[in-house]
Amino acid sequence: MLARCPSCRNTFSTDRPGRQDCPVCGKPLVVPEPPVASPAAGIDDLALEPSGTPWERRAELGFFTAWMQTLQQALLEPAKLFASARRDKGAAQLGFAVLNTSVFWALGQILERPLLIGQRDQLRRVLEGMSGNPDVAPMVERLLKAQLLASSPSWVVALALLTPVFTFVLLYVNAAVTHGIAAILGQAKRGFPATFAACAYACAPLVLLAVPACGSIVGLIWLVALTGIGMKVTHRISAAGAAASVLAPYFVLCCLMFAAIGTLTLALRRAVGQP
Amino acid sequence: MIVRAGRPSVHALALAGVAVLLLAAAAALPLDIPPLALLACPFRAATGLPCPGCGATRAFHFAVRGRFGDALAFSPLATAIAAVLGLHAVWTALRLAGLPFAPRLEDTPRARWLAAIAIVANWIFVSTQGRV
């Protein structure tokens, strides 16, 4: 084994621990016992991973029970859920997020169609009234066309069927951006799988997407909070580090999400004659 | 750094899938009709300055069409990200075919500073060049 003399700082080789003299300077020193190799050492620290969330143990718990327990823990005991998430169960976590989000997103789209029909007609009337203004006419025309297209039954069904694809892309974009910011801030202590677990289980509140009108807003705010808790627990970092990692990308994502609203607001301001 | 590696992980495969979908969307969706025509940056509308992500949509749009000069003029960082996405998709396909190597990013303070400087430099470039 190799040892270092605390007096002359030279490194030397020895075949036994304990009290002995330095072969370079001759001063007495104590060589410590070498650490005992554990059976798991050198394999992977995945051996030290927790037992798994209810969803990751759905084979033993049953599909519906596992989903319900995961949802319940995510909403009411998130720290417990994130602490039990395994980093080697990425496929299961992806499945939970895509299933949970796309089912309730699709349900929300279908429910919103009959429930918010009055509001949509009112918006259409406002837009049609604005279409006489030559400054905004092309934009309003495009909005009207897009709105008519999006509210047709075939598009509602098509969008509902495409939600798993949208969810899959958005989940990975969200996880990649969150992980990138966390890495820049030095907070990505346990790799991308830990960030992905946090982002995937943070999709649990998106069951609220099924609630027309306000459900999506509440669900998204809850998702941001849960992602922060998830990053803190899965990466074992401070609350401030987790908050910084999560909120910085949402600043950019907010820009994207509200982009259409910003455009519409500008168009409306122009239409009523404000600069 | 290139290291020896086995078959790609679930996340590597999924990220390659996302990369293909994003690049395909950038290639298929035109800029002048919805949904891309409806995109406008509220940060820019409020402040007159572009946000760090401004120009990324157009950079992707031009990068997938091979117009790298136009893409770089809108957002050098987004152009680089588009190139990295394409490279990741191709490399993952090669790994599935048996290539036993994979790139490995080192999480060092120097790499973190370089990434942060790249984001800020891109923001300054986008703000001063005025193409967005």
Structural write-up:
The complex is a heterodimer of chains A (275) and B (132). Chain A is mainly alpha-helical. Chain A has helices at residues 58-61, 63-76, 78-84, 90-115, 117-130, 137-150, 153-184, 191-201, 215-235, 239-257, 259-271; strands at 2-4, 11-13, 18-21, 28-31. In chain A, helix 3 crosses helix 9. Residues 37-44 of chain A have low confidence and may be disordered. Chain B has 6 helices and 2 strands; from the N terminus they run βαααααβα. A two-stranded antiparallel sheet of chain B has the order 1-2. In chain B, helix 3 packs antiparallel against helix 4 and helix 3 packs across helix 5. The interface between A and B is medium-sized, with 34 and 29 residues.
Low-confidence stretches of chain B: none
Helix content of chain B: 55-70%
Strand order of the largest sheet of chain A: 1-2
* Total of helices of chain A: 11
- Determine the strand fraction of chain A and express it as a percent band: 5-15%
| Major sheet size, sense and barrel closure of chain B | 2 strands, antiparallel
Structural key phrases:
heterodimer; A: 275 residues; mainly alpha; two-stranded antiparallel ribbon; 4 strands; B: mainly alpha; 5% strand
In a nutshell, what does this entry contain?
By secondary structure, chain A is mostly helical. Helix content of chain A is 64%, strand content 5%. Helices cover 62% and strands 5% of the residues of chain B.
Helix and strand layout, with pairings?
The complex is a heterodimer of chains A (275) and B (132).
Chain A (H helix, E strand, L loop, with lengths): L1 E3 L6 E3 L4 E4 L6 E4 L26 H4 L1 H14 L1 H7 L5 H26 L1 H14 L6 H14 L2 H32 L6 H11 L13 H21 L3 H19 L1 H13 L4
Antiparallel strand pairs in A: 1-2, 3-4
Helix pairs in contact in A: 2-3, 3-9, 4-7, 4-8, 5-6, 7-8, 7-10, 8-9, 9-10
Chain B lengths: L1 E3 L5 H19 L13 H6 L8 H8 L4 H7 L1 H21 L4 E3 L5 H21 L3
